[in-house]
Amino acid sequence: MAGIEVREGESFESFMRRFRRACEKAGVLRDYKRHEYYEKPSEKRKRKLIEARRKAWRRRKKENY
């Protein structure tokens, strides 16, 4: 979980903005959605394989530029 402290004189809106950014950076929401339902081991392997393919594709695409 993202640990954010309120700064002195900081408005609630700016605090919430920093908190949301920290949660997004830490991947809290993504992790929550992933654990919302049970994922079978076969589905987990399939998801990881797809993620690895995407990552490799992005890496190759970046190297070509």
Helix fraction bin: 55-70%
Low-confidence stretches: none
Radius of gyration: 18 Å
Separation, N- and C-terminal Cα atoms: 37 Å
Which percent range describes the beta-strand content? under 5%
Largest sheet: none
Overall structural domain count: 2
- The chain-level structural class is mainly alpha
DSSP summary: helix tally:
3
Whole-number mean pLDDT: 91
SSE series: HHH
Features:
about 70% helix, flat, mainly alpha, about 60 residues
Written description of the protein model:
With 65 residues, the protein is mainly α. The protein has 2 domains: 1-34; 39-65. 69% of the residues lie in helices and 0% in strands. The chain has helices at 12-26, 28-34, 41-63. The protein is flat. It holds the Pfam family Ribosomal_S21. GO terms for molecular function: structural constituent of ribosome.
Quick gist of this model?
With 65 residues, the protein is mostly helical. It has helices spanning 12-26, 28-34, 41-63. One of its GO terms (molecular function) is structural constituent of ribosome.
What's the layout of helices and strands?
Layout: H1 12-26, H2 28-34, H3 41-63
